[in-house]
Design goal:
308 residues; mainly beta; elongated
Length: 308
């Protein structure tokens, strides 16, 4: 059909690993579509030096199903199905369609979407008319993005994750640096503005530990936690999650009375003395990975009284 391509809608974002192969470089994915239904592809350029030089990154993938958040889902938990929250999104074109999926389909990866910085899945997709859709029966914080739960705001990106619609860029960028991406499609004007993304390293850094707990023993207070793996998404009974890092290491921060003490450990436990418990104690535990630190697991312990 002879349809107008329209201008390119370009949404680059950092993507967690979707398989069990550990990443060795940041994964910058690009989803693109057009303001017109005739849009098919665009050429991509990338820059890691603030736009001083540009390198060809090939073509975009197939037209993606994308748009913007209109109603954000708010807080939730990654370990439970979120049956209370809903999200509403505006897709870029009326021709774009979302479908519902049952739990069995969700379990094998259906309806995976990037909403803001949170990777989630939705079970129910309700068409509200025009380009507006309501998403519910949410599985939140997928693939280690639970820290982004509740952070989405109206206007943030929405991208349905479909492998054939994503272009993963090969960029030599370090964590904390910016990558600029520029698209050049048939109807894109000269001098189109690039889109920049700051590399956070979500595919490179280990996941935060879980089940951080304190147990009183005759020797003192024993902290324990359980590590996770950025290469251990499948549940295999009787087999520990793969390490996916050079070594098993942890960094524990103990904050008390305005001072912070850092302790490095190679095992997922630490014994605290009674002196450590004299004041309220804020605890953060991070896994030390090959490329940096994980986000923290946190615990607040009250002071240990004389009668305890």
């Amino acid at each position: 059909p002879d349809r107008v391509p329209g201008r390119t809608i370009l949404l680059p974002f950092e993507l967690p690993m979707l398989d069990d192969v550990p990443a060795t470089a940041p994964r910058l994915a690009v989803a693109a579509a057009g303001t017109g239904s005739g849009w098919r592809r665009a050429q991509l350029l990338g820059s890691t030096d603030g736009g001083l030089s540009w390198a060809s990154q090939g073509e975009t993938g197939f037209p993606a199903t994308l748009g913007a958040v209109r109603v954000a889902p708010g807080p939730g938990r990654a370990a439970l199905a979120d049956l209370a929250s809903v999200a509403e999104v505006d897709l870029a074109q009326e021709e774009m369609v979302l479908v519902s999926a049952d739990d069995a389909a969700l379990d094998v990866g259906a309806n995976l979407a990037m909403l803001g910085d949170e990777l989630l899945q939705f079970g129910d997709a309700e068409h509200l008319g025009g380009t507006r859709w309501r998403l519910s029966r949410l599985w939140r914080g997928r693939r280690g993005t639970e820290a982004a739960i509740g952070s989405a705001r109206p206007g943030d990106r929405f991208v349905l994750i479909e492998r054939e619609a994503l272009k993963v860029l090969d960029v030599a960028a370090s964590i904390g640096s910016d990558v600029a991406v520029l698209a050049q499609g048939v109807d894109d004007p000269a001098g189109s503005a690039p889109v920049s993304v700051q590399v956070a390293g979500i595919a490179l850094l280990p996941l935060s530990p879980v089940h951080l707990a304190a147990t009183e023993t005759g020797e003192g207070t024993r902290l324990s936690w359980v590590r996770r793996s950025r290469n251990g998404w499948q549940w295999r009974d009787g087999v520990d999650a793969p390490l996916a890092e050079e070594a098993e290491r942890y960094r524990i921060a103990l904050e008390s009375g305005g001072s912070v003490r850092l302790i490095d450990r190679e095992v997922p436990s630490l014994l605290l003395s009674r002196a450590d418990r004299a004041q309220a104690l804020r605890i953060e535990v991070r896994q030390v990975g090959t490329y940096g630190l994980s986000s923290p697991a946190r615990l607040l312990l009250p002071p240990l009284g004389d009668d305890q």
